What we know:
The chain is an all-alpha fold and 162 residues long. The chain has helices spanning 2-11, 19-26, 29-63, 67-93, 114-134, 137-141, 147-158, and strands at 95-96, 110-111. It has a two-stranded antiparallel ribbon.
Amino acid sequence: MQAISITGVFHAGIGYGHVKDIVAGYGLEPITKLSQIIIPLQFLWVLSLACTKMSILTLYVSIFPIRWVVWGSYITMAILIAWTIGTILAGCLICRPIAFNWDKTIPGGTCGDQVMSFTISGVINVVTDVIVLLLPMHALYHLQMAMYKRVALVTVFGLGIL
């Protein structure tokens, strides 16, 4: 994912400025490359986030033998799997043919609402982030140990908010 991002910086104008600045200085070629790079970048982005969250949820299942934490983890994993598949399918199918993403001159090509697609994907990402963050908090707070240890544990688990 980082290799694609770095390629985008050097060859597609990521971080340079607005599209009109790139086009004025370099022509349409960097914008075409950027449109081509966004597709695999989106796939790797969703896969990396889903795998990271699945790993954390698997940890919760193994260290919190509490029925609602386990069920909550499994339900969240199912949501993550559906979100991952949906985001990848949206990336593949939002423009038909797929080359219409970067070549708007293809006759008969169409695109759906890409901004809405990215927005929905981002909202689901934030919601699952909050679920993963909050899922173990109640169990941690009710552990039978000194208050300062419980606060330390909740703080360590809560660092994900950053």
